Amino acid sequence: MDDASHQSDPLRRARLKWRARRGLLENDLIFERFFSRYEHDLSDADVGALTRLLELSDNDLMDLLLARKEPEGDLADADVVRVLEMLRNV
Question: Is 1's pLDDT higher than 60?
Fold first, then answer.
């Protein structure tokens, strides 16, 4: 990300929420609750981790959200794991 943080730029928050819209209703519902609860508390590291999760296919993302699978490889870092736990607990 550049100098503007997620928190200081409402447009960035809106883009992130738009990008979180998914093809699977179950994923959409989880993200709606997540943003209702955490939108204004997310750090830039959280946004980066969330962006990485949003690069996954809907089915792979749902498997992670529902704890059918755990993050592997590049996704198994502390920021992604923390954001994933936040998503799982909403």
Answer: no
Report residue 56's pLDDT band, with 50, 70 and 90 as the boundaries: very high
Which residues are within 8 A (CB) of 8 and not within 5 positions of it... i.e. 6 or more apart?
none
Specify the CATH number of the domain 10-88: 1.10.150.250
Domain spans of the chain, in order of start: 10-88
Q: Where are the alpha helices (DSSP H) in the chain?
A: 10-19, 25-38, 44-54, 58-65, 78-88
Of 54, 49, 39, 16, residue with least CA distance to 90: 39
Higher pLDDT residue, 49 or 17? 49
CA distances from 47 to 2, 36, 68 (A): 13, 15, 23
Write down the residue that tokens 């998503």 correspond to. Answer: 87
